[in-house]
Specification:
Blueprint (H helix, E strand, L loop, with lengths): L3 E4 L2 E4 L2 E2 H8 L3 E5 H14 L5 E6 L6 H9 L3 E4 L2 H7 L9 E3 L6 H9 L4 E4 L2 H14 L4 E7 L21 E2 H11 L6 E6 L10 H19 L6 E3 L16 H12 L5 E4 L3 H4 L3 E13 L2 E6 L8 H5 L5 E3 L21 E6 L8 E8 L7 E4 L20 E6 L2 E6 L4 H5 L4
Parallel strand pairs: 4-20, 5-6, 5-13, 6-7, 7-8, 8-9, 9-10, 9-11, 11-12, 12-13, 15-17
Antiparallel strand pairs: 1-2, 2-3, 4-14, 14-15, 14-19, 16-19, 17-18, 20-21
This protein binds pyridoxal-5'-phosphate.
The site of pyridoxal-5'-phosphate has 19 residues, from helix 10.
Length: 425
C-alpha cells in the first residue's frame, strides 16, 4: 500500500506531480510520501494495540531526520545500530526510553553515549558485550535495561545476506546458552537484564518463522522466570514484508493475528522493530534516461542513477518494479509485478553509469518504450535505498524530497562536488 499512483498516465506522489519535482530538484532523486510513512506505522500500532506495545522503527532502513521526526511525532520509538543513528534520533522529540540499541560491535564510546542518553534497552549480542556494558554502566553510575538477543535458529527463508536468526550468523547468543548467560550475569549491580530480543532477518514473506521463533522464546522465558529472573519485555525485531510486488506481503494485521494470541496473558511488554515494512513503499527513486543502446541481442536503458544510489538489486538480488513516470494510457500498470505483460513493451536491462557490471536495476525487464531524457521511477525504494547509498565513482548522493499532499520539501540537498572533497582539505 502506498500513495504513488498514475493519474491520466502521469505518476503522482500523493497529490504532487513527480515530473514537477524532478524538473525542480533534478535527478536522481528520492521521493518519499509522508502519508505512506504514517499509515504504515499506524497500521502496526493498531494491529498490536491489545498488548502493551512499543514500535521502534529501524533507523537504518531510512534515517533522514525529517522522516524520523514524523515517526516520533506519531508515537514511534527507534531501533538503532550505531552512535550515528543515536545522534540522528536525538534530533527528534522521541522519548529516549523508546530507543533500543542493537549491533554486534558497539564501541565503548557508543555505549557511553547511549548510557548518557538514557535509552530504553541495550540489545546484547554476546556475553563479552554484556560484561563490557556492566563495566561501563558502573563507571558511569547508570543502571540501564538490557535485552539478551537470542538466536532462535529459525530460517526466515529469505536471502542469505538478510538472514540473521540462524545459528551460523554473527548475531545474538544461541538459545541453549541463554540460560547460562542469565545465570552468570543476570543478577549484577549495574545492568538490568530483563528482556529478550530476537530478530530473524529481513524481508521474510510468511508469518510462520515468527510463530516458531516466538514459541521457542516463550519457552525460554518460562524457564528463566522459574529460575528467578524477571523478564518484562519481549522484543520480536523486524523483518516484516513490504509490497515490492503489489499486495504480496502479509499485512501488519496478518502478522498480528498470528503473533498477538501467542503473547496474550504472558505478562510481557512487546517491542517491534519494523524497518522495511514502514519505509520501503514510502519512497521511490526517480532517474532520467541518458542513453539507449543495443549490444548483441540485448537492449540497455542507461539511466543517471547507479548502484551507489540504490544497491539492493546487485546486493540482494532484489526486485524493484520500474516504470516510466509518464506513460501512454495503455501502459498504466495495474499492479507492480515481475512479469507484467503489456502489448508493445520492450525487454531491456536498466543499468547505471558506474564502472561495474553489477550496476543494474533490472535485467530482461519488459518496459514501455522509453527515450533519452524520459523519467523512470524505481518503486519501493524507501528502505535501504538512500541509507545504503555511497559516493562510489565520486558521485554526489541524490537529493531527498518529502511529499505531503500537494506540497513537497527538499529534506536533503543533492550533494555538491565541494561536499565530495570537503573533509579532505
Ligand atoms: C535491520 C534490523 C531491523 C529492521 O529490519 P526490516 O527488515 O527493515 O524490518 C530490525 N531489528 C534489527 C535488530 C535489525 O538489525
Amino acid at each position: 500500500m502506498d500513495y504513488f499512483n498514475y493519474k491520466n498516465g502521469k505518476l503522482f506522489a500523493e497529490d504532487t506531480d513527480v515530473e514537477k519535482i524532478a524538473d525542480e530538484v533534478g535527478t536522481p532523486v528520492y521521493i518519499y510520501s509522508k502519508a505512506t510513512f504514517r499509515e504504515h506505522l499506524r497500521k502496526i500500532q493498531d494491529a498490536y494495540s491489545r498488548l502493551d506495545t512499543t514500535i521502534c522503527y529501524s533507523v537504518k532502513a531510512c534515517g533522514n531526520i525529517n522522516i524520523l521526526g514524523i515517526l516520533a511525532e506519531s508515537g514511534s520509538g527507534f531501533d538503532i545500530v550505531s552512535g550515528g543513528e543515536l545522534y540522528r534520533t536525538l534530533q527528534t522529540e522521541v522519548e529516549p526510553s523508546k530507543i533500543v540499541y542493537a549491533g554486534a560491535g558497539k564501541t565503548d564510546t557508543e555505549i557511553v553515549e547511549a548510557l548518557n542518553a538514557n535509552i530504553g534497552y541495550f540489545n546484547i549480542e554476546s556475553e563479552a558485550e554484556l560484561k563490557n556494558l556492566i563495566r561501563l554502566a558502573k563507571e558511569q553510575g547508570k543502571q540501564p535495561r538490557a535485552a539478551l538477543r537470542i538466536n532462535p535458529d529459525v530460517d526466515p527463508k529469505t536471502h542469505s545476506y538478510t538472514t540473521t536468526g540462524k545459528k551460523e550468523t554473527k548475531f545474538g547468543v544461541d538459545i541453549e546458552q541463554a540460560q547460562k548467560v542469565f545465570a552468570d550475569y543476570g543478577k549484577n549491580e549495574a545492568v538490568q537484564l530483563c528482556a529478550i530480543h530476537i530478530h530473524l532477518g529481513s524481508a521474510g514473506h510468511t508469518v510462520e518463522p515468527y510463530i516458531e521463533a516466538i514459541k521457542k522464546t516463550l519457552a525460554l522465558i518460562e524457564r528463566l522466570r522459574s529460575d528467578g529472573f524477571a523478564i518484562e519485555t519481549l522484543n520480536i525485531g523486524g523483518g516484516y514484508g513490504a509490497d515490492y510486488i503489489t499486495a504480496t506481503a502479509p499485512t501488519a494485521a496478518d502478522y498480528a493475528a498470528a503473533i498477538v494470541p501467542l503473547l496474550k496473558g504472558k505478562n510481557l511488554k512487546l517491542i517491534l522493530e519494523p524497518g522495511a515494512s514502514i519505509a520501503a513503499n514510502a519512497g521511490i527513486l526517480v532517474t532520467q534516461v541518458l542513453y539507449l543502446k543495443t549490444s548483441g541481442r540485448k537492449k540497455f536503458v542507461v539511466v543517471d542513477a547507479g548502484m551507489n544510489d540504490l544497491i539492493r538489486p546487485p546486493l540482494y538480488d532484489a526486485f524493484h518494479f520500474i516504470w516510466p513516470v509518464k506513460v501512454d494510457k495503455k501502459f498504466v500498470p495495474e499492479r507492480r509485478d515481475k512479469d507484467l505483460q503489456l502489448g508493445g513493451a520492450v525487454v531491456v536491462d536498466v543499468v547505471g553509469p558506474i564502472c561495474e557490471s553489477a550496476d543494474f536495476f533490472a535485467k530482461d525487464r519488459a518496459l514501455p518504450p522509453v527515450e533519452r531524457s524520459d523519467l523512470i521511477s524505481v518503486f519501493t525504494a524507501g528502505a535501504y535505498g538512500f541509507s545504503m547509498s555511497s559516493n562510489y565513482n565520486a558521485r554526489c548522493r541524490a537529493a531527498e524530497v518529502l511529499v505531503d499532499g500537494d506540497k513537497f520539501t527538499v529534506i536533503r540537498k543533492r550533494e555538491s562536488y565541494e561536499d565530495l572533497i570537503g573533509l579532505e582539505k
